[in-house]
């Protein structure tokens, strides 16, 4: 096979790298401080917000008018009775004296390195931060001249605004048809002397309706309702402030220094709103130390530790700077919103915004309240996975945890669903699902008499959990966490592969035949042996069999080996007359050999390239592997090029060592700016604002351009542009950390921990050929 790239083992570079070793940075927090966001003019509305959060409690923060600081509050577990993720509420802090009136004396900074926002306006300074270690938000204000202050709770979930509740089902097609459960108003408690308290309490739940509609009423009492009596809300207090009504705190007299503290709490289940209130009063005492100095120090230590885990800081010009800035911003937003009970949502996360709409008005994409998000509140595996893949190489395992735990918590119900529907073992999860693991009810179908999902987009779309297994395997490879492997990875993986083994028939050749099936959303209903599912099984099963035998049983290993042995080959064919993936699988007899989306398939129904799942996420083809040309030819023939959102062009190109393709895509991903002032609230190419899977896809692409792992081998610079420089620190399998510096496309400094792993590093040189775009 013609060599498509040149590589040199690390030993040939020892002298050059040793000369540069002292230059390797060791402080990611210092690097990221260069990426702080600085604004020199005040804001006007929620379109001018900055993100803030500790992974569970989050806020959009903006200035408005001549003296208003506005906090739109969110929490990762604020799920209503309708299964809708909503905001906690909005707090407006008005400081008299018009501190924002002089734009020439205004400076607002999002400080990434310390996870806070600082505002200097005239003679007044603000610091807003959400404690990294406690469910508490703090606002500290100092003014040279005494000023009066008013803090007001603003809520849109009122009896008047909700009306009959139907208006707030917009963007929630997953509960279409439900009439007996409506979104109830929030509870605003009588104010204390210096405190405002409010909550939302779920007196009802759509959960039993979903179970009944999906023919699972027999297990209703087996699993606790995840929505019923869930209670979430917050308590706001202020030093030297007094309540004025139930929704305002005011200063008793003009002052120069103010401090406001907010604590947020979710209970599941709560005995009552009153019981929740007693609990949040106790939280107020434990989460709000009298002196914030120690809490602030510990908060900064968390952020310093976070940024020092990993970094990629690219330099070399405006294009590379945009990439570095986007990478830092996506990682910050994930840190700010993915340490709670459930994973962050791909379609806006915790940072959606909106404004109050007239009573009875149905929110839509153009006019909506802050609770609205397009594409609803179900989880979509194919979108959400992109947020979580890059967290493995960054070593952000605490942020990865909610993604795994959602599936693990839902596994028992998924097993029961399989047994009730199909009378065999194992489990499957649909592409779109409630967080408790059942299909989106809109997709399943209201009054659907069968067990099949009615939506043709989702009916047989279950391969996403093979990808979750791949992520779990990577986590184990990187950390060596045997407790996780034994208690989480192996039971989950065994349930999923057992489903495949027992659900599908065997053909006359004795091979498994995946039918009925579909190849992602693009080739629907009539696909046979879809490539993503086969690639996932062909990738996952050998890795499961490679686990230490003490972590698995002999029966599991035997079953996995048997399934691997009966898997059919990956579908192969040739390009059509235009050099593309052939429609209906019928290629040109003289076309180029390529991989196909499935063994049999019909017309396209979406714009994915399922055949390229062999490169990412399943890595059956790539740098250092056989048949690289076949994979590159398949990439060149793809029918649906797409560089942003959930399009995988960038990552697939990087895995295949196609530098110019990967570069163009990663620049597109990290400059796909939104229409809000904080432009890294990514534009909704397909989803909602911020489109977090756009930034996640960009992170994966950049990481794959720089470092790829294949077993013990670590390939450096497999798709790195010759004119880009960078400082980097990434994690790798076998508890390895790879840190270094690139100057104009060449590695000039490298430090590998542990040192024994340095022998496994391969530096990949310039490729000799690329396919045209």
Write a brief caption for the model.
With 773 residues, this protein is of the alpha+beta class. 29% of the residues lie in helices and 24% in strands. The strands form 7 sheets. A 9-stranded antiparallel beta sheet has the order 2-7-8-9-10-17-14-13-12.
Describe this protein's structure.
With 773 residues, the protein is α+β, with helices and mostly antiparallel strands. It is 29% helix and 24% strand. The protein is built from 19 helices and 31 strands. Strands 2-7-8-9-10-17-14-13-12 form a nine-stranded antiparallel beta sheet. The protein has a seven-stranded antiparallel beta sheet with strand order 3-4-5-6-11-16-15, with no helix packed on it. β21 and β22 form a beta hairpin. The radius of gyration is 27 Å and the shape is globular. It starts with a strand and ends in a 6-residue tail after the last strand. The relative contact order is 0.11. Mean pLDDT is 93; it is low at 1-23 and 767-773.
**Lateral strand order in the biggest sheet:** 2-7-8-9-10-17-14-13-12
Helix content: 25-40%
**Helix/strand/pairing category:** alpha+beta
Distance between the ends: 23 Å
Mean pLDDT: 93
Low-confidence stretches: 1-23, 767-773
């Amino acid at each position: 096979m013609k060599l498509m790239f040149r590589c040199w083992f690390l030993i040939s570079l020892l002298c050059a790298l040793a000369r540069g070793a002292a230059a390797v940075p060791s402080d990611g927090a210092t690097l990221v401080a260069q990426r702080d966001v600085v604004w020199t003019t005040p804001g006007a509305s929620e379109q001018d917000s900055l993100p803030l959060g500790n992974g569970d409690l989050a806020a959009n923060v903006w200035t408005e008018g001549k003296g208003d600081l506005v906090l739109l509050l969110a929490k990762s577990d604020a799920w209503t009775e309708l299964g809708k993720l909503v905001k906690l509420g909005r707090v407006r802090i008005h400081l008299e004296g018009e501190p924002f009136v002089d734009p020439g004396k205004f400076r607002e900074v999002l400080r990434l390195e310390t996870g806070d926002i600082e505002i200097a306006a005239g003679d007044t300074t603000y610091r807003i931060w959400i404690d990294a270690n406690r469910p508490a938000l703090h606002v500290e204000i100092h003014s040279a001249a005494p000023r009066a202050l008013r803090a007001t709770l603003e809520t849109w979930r009122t009896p008047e605004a909700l009306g009959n509740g139907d208006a707030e089902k917009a963007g929630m097609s997953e509960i279409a048809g439900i009439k007996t459960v409506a979104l109830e108003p929030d509870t605003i408690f009588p104010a204390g002397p210096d405190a405002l308290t409010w909550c939302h309490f779920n007196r009802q739940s759509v959960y039993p309706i979903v179970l009944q509609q999906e023919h699972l009423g027999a297990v209703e009492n087996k699993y606790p309702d995840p929505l019923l009596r869930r209670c979430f809300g917050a308590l706001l207090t202020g030093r030297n402030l007094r309540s004025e009504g139930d929704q305002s705190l005011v200063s008793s007299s003009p002052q120069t220094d103010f401090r406001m503290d907010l604590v947020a709490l979710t209970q599941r289940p709560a005995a009552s709103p009153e019981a929740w209130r007693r609990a949040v009063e106790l939280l107020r005492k434990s989460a709000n130390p009298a002196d914030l100095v120690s809490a602030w120090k510990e908060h900064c230590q968390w952020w310093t530790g976070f940024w020092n885990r990993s970094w990629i800081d690219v330099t070399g010009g405006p294009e590379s700077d945009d990439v570095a800035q986007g990478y830092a911003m996506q990682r910050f937003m994930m840190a700010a919103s993915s340490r709670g009970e459930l994973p962050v949502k791909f379609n806006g996360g915790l940072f959606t915004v909106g404004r109050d709409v007239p009573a009875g008005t149905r929110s839509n994409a153009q006019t909506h309240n802050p609770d609205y998000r397009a594409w609803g509140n179900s989880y979509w595996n194919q979108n959400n996975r992109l947020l979580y893949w890059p967290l493995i190489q960054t070593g952000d395992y605490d942020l990865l945890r909610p993604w795994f735990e959602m599936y693990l918590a839902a596994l028992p119900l998924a097993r029961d669903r399989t047994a009730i529907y199909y009378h065999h073992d194992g489990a499957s999860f649909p592409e779109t699902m409630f967080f408790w693991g059942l299909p989106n009810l809109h997709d399943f179908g209201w009054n659907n008499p069968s067990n099949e999902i009615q939506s043709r987009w989702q009916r047989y779309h279950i391969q996403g959990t093979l990808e979750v297994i791949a992520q779990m395997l990577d986590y184990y490879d990187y950390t060596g966490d045997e407790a996780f492997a034994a208690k989480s990875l192996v039971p989950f993986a065994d349930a999923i592969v057992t489903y495949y083994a027992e659900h599908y028939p065997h053909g006359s050749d004795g091979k498994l035949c995946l039918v009925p099936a579909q190849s992602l959303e693009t080739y629907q209903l009539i696909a046979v042996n879809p490539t993503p599912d086969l690639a996932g099984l062909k990738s996952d099963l050998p890795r499961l069999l490679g686990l230490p035998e003490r972590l698995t049983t002999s029966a599991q290993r035997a079953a996995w080996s048997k399934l691997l042995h009966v898997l059919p080959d990956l579908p192969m064919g040739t390009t059509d007359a235009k050099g593309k993936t052939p429609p209906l699988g019928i290629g040109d007899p003289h076309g180029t050999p390529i991989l196909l989306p499935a063994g049999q398939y019909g017309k396209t129904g979406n714009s994915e390239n399922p055949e390229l799942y062999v490169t990412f996420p399943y890595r059956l083809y790539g740098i250092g592997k056989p048949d690289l040309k076949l994979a590159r030819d398949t990439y060149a023939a793809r029918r649906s090029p797409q560089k942003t959102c959930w399009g995988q062009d960038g990552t697939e190109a990087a895995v295949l060592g196609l530098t110019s393709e990967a570069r163009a895509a990663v620049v597109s991903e990290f400059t796909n700016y939104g229409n809000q002032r904080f432009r890294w609230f990514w534009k909704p190419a397909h989803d909602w604002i911020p489109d977090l899977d756009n930034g996640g896809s960009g992170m994966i692409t950049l990481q794959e351009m720089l470092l790829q792992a294949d077993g013990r081998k670590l390939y450096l610079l497999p798709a790195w542009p010759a004119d880009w420089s960078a400082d980097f620190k990434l994690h790798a399998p076998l508890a390895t950390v790879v840190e270094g510096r690139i100057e104009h496309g060449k590695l000039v400094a490298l430090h590998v921990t542990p040192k024994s792993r340095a022998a496994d590093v391969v530096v990949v040189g310039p490729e000799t050929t690329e396919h045209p775009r």
